Every structure is written in structure tokens, then in C-alpha cells.
Amino acid sequence: MNTRLFAAAACTGALHMLLAAGNNTPVTVQVDSGNVQFDSATNFSAVSVHGKSGALKATVQAHQSGEEVVLEQVKAWLPVKALTTGMGLRDEHMRKYIFTTADGAMPDLRFTGENLHCPAQMGRETTCPVNGTLSVRGVERPFSLTLKVKQERSAPSQFKVSGGASLKLSDYGIERPSQLGVKTEDEVQLHLEFTARETPLSARVEATK
Which end of the chain is more exposed for a tag (fewer CB within 10 A), N or C? Predict the structure, then answer.
């Protein structure tokens, strides 16, 4: 029952924005309310656990370099309490057994990445590999995913981003949770969708100080 991969995605929205600008000027891209979904199979084939959140946030600083876009810095985060499965008791168990540390803290899920290179293909859907570090329950591990970005025709400064991947609870030292004999699998499938927007010029200038 995890949803950690999510955040990385924000970064690729910078790619099309840089191309639209037509120069090497650094830009900052922001995501305020991205959607994340997760699916986990269980030891009963007819039972699976689904969850979601619309609270993904991220910021990306990037610039164009030749036929590539360089994502200088990627930061994304998701509050654990924003994840829900549609059942209150199950949500409590998820937060307690998956996301709460030994000292009772419940840190946000966080993704960070630096110096990521994406191909530049103006006017086409762009596929970009994203590699970085994902922190779950305070434990950091290398994490990678592939994202797709599509520019909105009606709003050139907006970009639809989607992606999917899987992760293993055991990689973060998390035991598979169980309830009433139903036990989740170690691997969790993740999917995310969000709209990325370039921040105003004043925000970009402030971000570089």
C-alpha cells in the first residue's frame, strides 16, 4: 500500500516549457495537486487494495542544452495522511504499519533528483527516464521511472504528465501488512497523472537567489 514513486514526474513538464521558450533561460515548473494511485495484490486472488491521493506537490528547475533539457533539480513530496483507500480502518493500519517510524513520526514521501537529461522533441509526446532518490518512512533508496509528457493545445504553458512503475515494500524495510487473513504482496503498482505549469517570471527569479 505505497505511493512513493509519484513525485518524480513533475520534472518532465519543464521539457516542453523550455522548448516553447526557445532559449536557454532557466525555468521553474510547479505541480500543486497531482493525482497518485496505487494498487496492491493480496494472497487472495479476488482481493486487492487500491488507494489514491490528490496532494502531490513538486518543483523543478531546468534549462535547455542543445537537443536536451537538463533538469537541474527536482523536488517532490506527498503527505502520508493524504493517502486514502476508501476504508477508515484500513487507512489507519496503512499509516501505522507502513509509514510510521519507530519513534512515532510520519514523514512525507519525498523524491529528489539532480542533473537529469531528457530528449527534446517539440510538438510530440515526450518520454523521459527519471532517476533519483525516494524516501519512504525516512528510508532513502534509489528510484527510477519513465514519464510521458503532452503539451496542451488550448493552454501552451500547461502540460499533462503521466507515468507508472512498481516498488517493493521490502526495499524500505517494510513488512507486508495483513488484516483478517488478507496479506498484501510485496510489490505495489503505482500510477500518477498531473498538470505541470511554469511559474511566473518573478517566482523563477526568486527561486534562483
Answer: C
**Gyration radius of the chain's alpha carbons:** 18
User: Is 184:49 a contact under the CB 8 Å cutoff?
Assistant: yes
Question: Are the CB atoms for 82 and 53 separated by under 8 Å?
Answer: yes
Output b/e per residue, 157-182; b: 16+ Cβ within 10 A. ebbebbbbbebebebbebebbeeeee
Q: How many CB atoms lie within 10 A of CB 63?
A: 17
Look at residue 141 and give its three-state secondary structure. strand
The three three-digit cell numbers of residue 110, written as one number: 519525498
The model scores a pTM over 0.85: no
d(Cα 33, Cα 104) in Å, to the nearest integer?
27
Per-residue pLDDT, 106: 94
